[in-house]
Amino acid sequence: RRPTNTTVxxxxxxxxxxxxxxxxxxxxxxxxxxxxxxxxxxxxxxxxEDFLExxxxxxxxxxxEFLRSAEQPNEDTEEWLAYCHYHLGNYQKALDxxxxxxxxxxxxxxxxxxxxxxxLLGMYNEAEDAANKGSxxxxxxxxxxxxxxxxxxxxxLMSYHRHLQDVHEDQMTLASIHxxxxxxxxxxxxxKRLLLENREAYALNVYIGLCYYKxxxxxxxxxxxxxxxxxxxxxxxxxxxxxxxxxxxxxGKNAEAELQHxxxxxxxxxxxxxxxIKHNMVVFRSGELALQVLPPLIDVLPEARLNLVxxxxxxxxxxxxxNLIKDTEPTTPQEYILKGVVNATLGQEQxxxxxxxxxxxxxxxVGGSASECDTIPGRQCMASCFFLLKQFDDVLIYLxxxxxxxxxxxxxxxxxxxxLASISRWRDAEEAFLLIQSExxxxxxxxxxxxxRCYIMNRKARxxxxxxxxxxxxxxxxxxxxLIANDCYKMxxxxxxxxxxxxxxxxxxxxxxxxxxxxxxxxxxxxIISEQEPRESLREVLAILKTTANPQVEYIMxxxxxxxxxxxxxx
Length: 571
What we know:
70% helix; elongated
């Protein structure tokens, strides 16, 4: 009757970038059984097996504690208590009980159970040491297999891998390691084979759904998950995964509705689910209450640290984001990507070549890996890598391949527009910039400068001039005016070039501005003569020239007036 512990793989299979729960779920509600006619039966205590069958571990613990206090314990009471605490997620309490059993030496397998508790508490070296004290068993090998993965000991990992057999538990363990190493297709192959062998193993559909989620096939994940939810509509794991898919496919509001349903199903004693719900609610609500909820969860849910870093990035608190992640040794694609983003942002902000080089290396590691190269994040990483290297033709190869997924994404369109403009695809760049809806982004100088340049290169200088007129007086408006003056001159749009140079000369009597103004006025005069510009513009040119006290002005204006008189143009 000794309870067997086989849930090490469960806690490892169910990790998502937005945290997903282990397979433990609250007991399903049952219709009250028909009343017994026997008064004697009414007075009987419930049986432990009934609680375990319903996975009501709180009820089982209550019964066992009652029996122990009433001095009516079963012969395996402490072992069953440890088992129930373990499956309820109370790993520290289970560890304390299993340690007593192991030190007593009554059960040769107790040390392996101790190792399982250490493992789920994140104490991987202690888990390995405890397991090695236990007797050999398939569970011991599976635990050591997982521990060696966690402590990055490849030699031991391959050694324990060779001892895995073609049985359900070992194959599930192998699939979970594939999952954690981002070999999602290999994990799917194993899960599907096991499902073919046993169609009633419905939980395998959740694992397959998790893999498809990680591969960004959210709609496929949803379809696979539907099979399990039809059988177990109150599964916390499945509901949470469904919420995550809703978040990716639709919006945070859809996901939030699913989690509220999960919150109604879970009991107050199910603390792990409560932490999970609070964490994901922050994500689904775009960081609302992040500073209150996420910091206490950093050591509970690995994703809490990553999402807090993302929150700091979105709030432009770069130093806090960097300090939070700088000592984190990345092991998953998400961690590599986030470290790359933080270093890239900090590198651009501080003009640090060191941070930019680190960012480029992190992006290249993810985008070049076999498991990520064909995913959307993988292609984004390669695009980011080439962007930092200023190889914009290569950037566009990757961005074009995922463009259809980000049509309304402002950040994507911003980067896409910059790349197009950098290789002189001005018309396409203008379209990309005009798709951006964020007012904050549209008020940034970089956006205005790129859009103004696109307008000028597409011979729409008037629109560029209007961008300048809408700006408040500042150093940024001065820089934009300078850009308009020079780009319009280069493109032969002399009317707006001479207006811009005139304003620049009034702000700063720099001889270069007079030279630009003089050239633009003469260029506009030539366009008037060749009828590329209306003759009425000549009056404005003369007014602009009058503002400069330079000996050359009189000669230029005399020439223009003579031509106007000969051609009967009123000036």
